[in-house]
């Protein structure tokens, strides 16, 4: 077996806004779309993201441990820029830190079971060839 995609859930009220953010701010392209779900890929990556609409009213209190993770030389600034973009569209946006090199963005009304993480590239230098 070979890894294909990772799936997470979005609140239907903010589904299109999050898709717009991923496309417009991070360059994702749509691979496939159904009434309930969308599959996206960031050019140059080899793992796709699937997001499904979810009516789940309660949010996982520990969702900060479930991330869609990105690498950035300036992770906090990158997430602050996404937070500003989301706030300009009426979404509450919270940027927090796991450490001085790992940060997260939560859009509590939109993200059901995950946050977006950004970390410095050295944290992903595992010393193995892919």
* Broad structural category: alpha/beta
The CATH topology label is: 2,3-Dihydroxybiphenyl 1,2-Dioxygenase, domain 1
- The first-level CATH class is given as Alpha Beta
Number of strands: 8
Cα shape: globular
Task: Tally the helices.
Answer: 2
Strand content: 25-35%
Return the domain count.
Answer: 1
Q: What's the Cα radius of gyration?
A: 14 Å
Q: How are helices and strands ordered from N to C?
A: EHEEEEHEEE
- Mean pLDDT across residues: 93
CATH architecture group name? Roll
Q: Provide the spatial order of strands within the biggest beta sheet.
A: 1-4-3-2
Helix content: 10-25%
Distance between the termini: 15 Å
CATH fourth-tier homologous superfamily: 2,3-Dihydroxybiphenyl 1,2-Dioxygenase, domain 1
Low-confidence blocks of residues:
none
How would you describe this structure to a colleague?
The chain is of the alpha/beta class. It has one domain: 2,3-Dihydroxybiphenyl 1,2-Dioxygenase, domain 1, CATH 3.10.180.10. It is built from 2 helices and 8 strands. The strands form 2 sheets. It has a 4-stranded mixed beta sheet with strand order 1-4-3-2, with helices on one face. Strands 5-8-7-6 form a 4-stranded mixed beta sheet, with helices on one face. The longest helix has 13 residues, at 75-87. The two termini are 15 Å apart.
């Amino acid at each position: 077996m070979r890894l294909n995609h990772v799936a997470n859930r979005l609140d239907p009220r903010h589904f299109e806004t999050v898709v717009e953010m991923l496309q417009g701010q991070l360059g994702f392209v749509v691979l496939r779309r159904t009434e309930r779900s969308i599959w996206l890929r960031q050019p140059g990556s080899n793992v796709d993201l699937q997001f499904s609409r979810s009516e789940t009213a309660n949010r996982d209190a520990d969702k900060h441990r479930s991330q869609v993770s990105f690498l950035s030389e300036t992770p906090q600034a990158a997430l602050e820029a996404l937070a500003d973009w989301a706030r300009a569209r009426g979404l509450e946006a919270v940027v927090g830190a796991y450490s001085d090199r790992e940060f997260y963005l939560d859009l509590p009304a939109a993200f059901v079971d995950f946050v977006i993480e950004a970390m410095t590239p050295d944290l992903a230098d595992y010393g193995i060839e892919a």
